[in-house]
Automatic annotation (TrEMBL):
A GO MF label: nucleoside diphosphate kinase activity
Binding site for ATP: 11, 59, 87, 93, 104, 114
Protein name listed in UniProt: Nucleoside diphosphate kinase
Phylogenetic placement of the source organism: Bacteria, Pseudomonadati, Pseudomonadota, Gammaproteobacteria, Oceanospirillales
Reaction equation(s) it catalyzes: a 2'-deoxyribonucleoside 5'-diphosphate + ATP = a 2'-deoxyribonucleoside 5'-triphosphate + ADP; a ribonucleoside 5'-diphosphate + ATP = a ribonucleoside 5'-triphosphate + ADP
Length: 141
């Protein structure tokens, strides 16, 4: 299995609900290690740049508004097949469609406020990790 890194965000709704620890616990129990982490209040420009791939979508304004509505945790998870493993733990984008036991099924309330972000490919993981972290901020462990 490939050892990978992926960019994870605990979104403002989950930070506000005070379930940071419960979400981190899902990652740890699945064998993913947190190798970098910080809490940030995203600026509008930071959120727009992060989600640039969605800028033509009708929901872009709502997405940026939501992601800047309160602090987030941005972090790098590392482990076997970390990109797909994190997406499996997260569940479907729309929590109404997310499988029971996934983070979004258990903690998200809507397609906007859906608790977590996870990179969807090796290319996006590389871009997204570099968007928030310098190589010196990522720890070997
Ligand atoms: P993800 O990779 O599962 O997070 O989903 P996408 O990359 O497709 O979309 C990014 C984020 O935009 C999602 O996590 C949602 O918060 C939001 N989003 C996606 N589709 C919709 C939609 O149809 N309506 C709204 N309001 N937000 C959406
Ligand atoms: Mg996505």
């Amino acid at each position: 299995m490939a050892n990978e890194r992926t960019l994870s965000i605990i979104k403002p709704d989950a930070v506000a609900k005070n379930v940071i620890g419960e979400i981190e616990s899902r990652f740890e129990k699945a064998g993913l290690k947190i190798v970098a982490a910080k809490m940030l209040q995203l600026s509008q420009a930071q959120a727009e740049g992060f989600y640039a791939e969605h800028k033509e979508r009708s929901f872009f304004g709502d997405l940026v508004g939501f992601m800047t509505s309160g602090p987030v945790i941005v972090q790098v998870l590392e482990g076997d097949n970390a990109i797909a493993a994190n997406r499996d733990l997260m569940g479907a984008t729309n929590p109404k469609e997310a499988e029971a036991g996934t983070i979004r099924a258990d903690f998200a309330q809507s397609i906007d406020a859906n608790a977590v972000h996870g990179s969807d490919s090796p290319e996006s993981a590389e871009r997204e990790i570099a968007y928030f972290f310098g190589s010196e901020e990522i720890c070997a462990r």
